[in-house]
Amino acid sequence: MWWNKRAIGLHCTLLVLLPIFSIMAYWQLSRALSGNSLSWVYTFEWPFFGFYAIFLWWKLIHEDQTDQQVGIRFSARTKPVKKDVQTEIDQEAVAYNNYLASLYKNDRTR
After folding, report:
1. N- to C-terminal Cα separation, the chain
2. Most buried in the list 24, 36, 40, 89, measured by CB within 10 Å?
């Protein structure tokens, strides 16, 4: 669970994002303290992104393996589009293209 390929990718992503978010929060705090009032919003926004990244990391690490397999099995069981539906769509497309061609033909005769 903690050291499979997916989990290692999640760990690496978190290890990259958290320092970036911290640096951005510090930068916005220094801008806010120097008089930029809009930076106060970003000063609190970047730590929120960091906490949200930690929350998602935790949820994805502890995601039940059966949930992932159920998704795979469900997608494998979906039925292909029936031939009747595809034929009906094709006939509608042909009829629409013929209609457009007739409009173009009528417009050129004017």
Report:
1. 71
2. 24
CA-to-CA dists, residue 46 to 11, 52, 102, angstroms? 19, 10, 58
* Domain co-membership, 100 together with 74: no
Q: What is the residue-level pLDDT of the chain in tens, covering all 110 positions?
A: 788 898 999 999 999 999 999 999 999 999 999 999 999 999 999 999 999 999 999 999 988 665 555 555 555 556 665 666 667 778 888 888 889 988 888 887 76
Looking at the fold, whether 64 and 99 belong to one and the same domain comes out as no
Number of structural domains (the chain) is 2
Residues 1, 108: Cα–Cα separation, whole Å: 67
Distance, CA of 104 to CA of 27 (rounded, Å)? 60
CA distances (Å), origin 80, targets 6, 73, 75, 83, 85: 30, 15, 11, 9, 11
Query: Do both 51 and 62 map to the same domain?
Result: yes
Residue 31 lies in domain: 1-78
